[in-house]
Every structure is written in structure tokens, then in C-alpha cells.
User: Fold this.
Amino acid sequence: MKLLQWYAQRDPAYIRQRAVALRERYGITPVKAIRRVTNCVALLAEYGCAPTFPTPGRVVERHPDWIRLLQERGAEIAVHGFDHVDLCAYPLEKGRQQLVRATAAFDRHGIEWRGFRCPYLGCPEDLPALLPPGLFDYSSNRAIEWDASLPDGDGVKNQAVHEVLQRVYRPLSSRDAVSVPWSRAHIIEIPVTLPDDLTLHDGHQLGYEGLAEVWIRVLRATHERGEMFVLMYHPELGEPCQRAFAAVLDEAARLRPGVWLARLRDISGWWREKDAFDASISSADASLNVSFACSDRATILVKGLATAGSEPWDDVYRQLRARSLQVPAEPRPFLGLPANAPPHRVTFLREQGYILDMGETAPRCATYLDATVLDRMASDVDLISLIEASPGPLIRYWRWPDGARSVLSITGDLDAVSLLDYTTRLFVR
Assistant:
């Protein structure tokens, strides 16, 4: 990245502290980093979990055999630009070239990719639309910060690190944003979850026990809301993170309904699979016949209805195993919306799995949101809370496959393997 601009975004205290940390965490050769990352992949595999490593094309060029080995062991390798530079600092065409050049490097060395994450999460709003159609299935460039209480007395101890990371990440708040994928220029956006390891370890100076405590709180919060925990870490902090990962994965195994352990490519693939699901509804006397067009992995939930072939899922919903059912005609167990509902609301609610009724029968739905109600919703979180608080019967697809309530995905930006990798990115023009 442009060196003067890099310095302008970081104060002297941060630069000094970061330099000391990097000397400790990286070597002149890649041996230390390779051992750290390889050990992490092995640990996660013991839990049936595989990580996603966004990796610059230049790192792939320097270490192709090792990157292929990670992929062979189940890790997903995603594109992280060709150079580790902030694409927001360059013209859009330069950013496009960085990503396309990276895919060429991946191709040369037999590395499969599905998605990309820009360095520093710096993806200009118009960049995805400029990429060649079909080049990427997903991106992961937005961040959602969860209000996870820190251990007592563990406030920000390193203000310089904390302030720089907040400027870089520009997070949304979990109070307003729902942590699920969404479509962006035909690419699925999968937001990462904060706080990350640098915030907690370098900013709050927490050890592995503190990391585990905070991340378990985030895991429980995302599980309660049925959302994603895309745990972002940096392999330079492999040792404390690995011990925290073990604690988080142990907790995930205890939660019910279950937690889906997935790579980013698995999440984007599922989100596209789910997008094709549908339901056909026909009337029969005083009842409705509902047939579901979906894959075997689909999770169909019902509440407020006596349905054969279902089993308890949580305290509210039952999971339907059959792919059709008959229910009373009134009230209609769908989500009713006015025909002129805002398109962005309609798209969002469909993506969450709700079966929408926007025709003349919409007001007869047990849950009906008129234009006034939709207009006063301050956030997507408020909207979902209102719908789920409705006491009436409801049939819907759930967000995740195979009965899982939430998702845990571990993803680490593999932006450098040696001090050489790290320092050369400062001089990219």
C-alpha cells in the first residue's frame, strides 16, 4: 500500500507496538508461522471443523506447496487480494486488477477459490459489481460487532490498537444488524464477527482464557438469535487462539439445537441452495395443503399448530420432517405483507426463510405487518423480534440446514508467513 498513506492511518504509538509484536510473532523464514497454522488446522480437525484462510496471491506465489497442503487437509483458501493492500485507497480499476490477478496466481498453483475478503475489510461499495460475472461466489468484507461483556476490569488497555482497529473495521452493531449472509451484486456477502483476536489480545491484553470467555458469550448470543458467528482471527496469534478455539468448540458441541460448523464456502453454497426453496399452498374445504419444494437438508419449522410428523426443536418451534402438511385455513400460518411493501424488506424476510403472503389473503395471516408497522421498524433486529414475538401459528424455513440453530465459522487472514511477506506489502505502489 502507499507508504505515506499507511502511516497516516496509524499513529506512532500503534506503529511502535505493532513492530515489536511482529518481530515476536514472525521469523525471517516462514518456519514459525507454518508450524503455527498447521497445528491450528490439525486442532480444528479434531472437532470436525475446518477453517477458511483468505490469502494474498503473493503469499500463494511464495509458498504454493504449503498452501496446497492446507487445502488438501480441508481448509478453504479464499482470495485476499494479490498484495495485502487497502483497496479503498486505490481507484476501482486497480482494486479489480488486484483481485483478478490473485485468482490467476491461485490458478497457476492449483489452488481452488470460491470467495474473497479484501485486506483490512476494505472493499469499496462499487467494486463487486465491476468483477467478472461468476468470478466469486461470496465476499466477506463487512463486520458486525457484538456487545460481549469483557471480564471484570478488562477494559481497553491499549488505546492505540483499539482506535486503529475501529477505524479499519468500521463495524455495524449487532443491536441493528442481523448476522446472516445477504446478496450484493450477485455475490453473497458473509459478514465477520467482532471482537476479533487483535481487539481482545492486543487491545484489551487478554490471554487465552479471556479470549475464550468473550467468544463463548458471542457464541451463545448468536445461537440464541439463530445467526452466524464468523470468528475472525489472525494466525500470528495462533497459540492463544488455538486454546480459546478448543473452549469455544466444546461449548458449541453442548448447545441445542446444534451449531453448524462451516467454512465460508459452505455458508455461501447453502444460502444459494436455500434461495431456491419454495412452498405451494392450495385450499381444501376448511384447510390448507402446504407442500415444500426443498432439498433434504432444509429445516422446516412450525409453531402454534398440531402437526403429525414433527418433533420439538426449541421452546417455541417444532421441526417438520415431512415435506407436506395440512393445516386450518384460518388464520393463515404465513407472514402477511402488503403488496407495496418495500422491496428491501421483502428480500430480507424471504432470505430469512419466511413464507410470504402478499396477495389479497395477506391480512388473514396470523402475523400481518402493514405499511405503518414496516415503516416504524428501526432495524432488521427489531423487525425479526416483532415477527417472532407474534403468538399466532407460523410455518417457515429456518436459516440453516439439518436442524442447526446457528453457525460457527473460523476464519483467519493468512496475510503473511514471514517478516519478508509483511514488510514487502508496505512498498506496493
Notes: Residues 3-258+407-427 form a domain with the TIM Barrel fold (CATH 3.20.20.370). The chain has 16 helices and 22 strands.
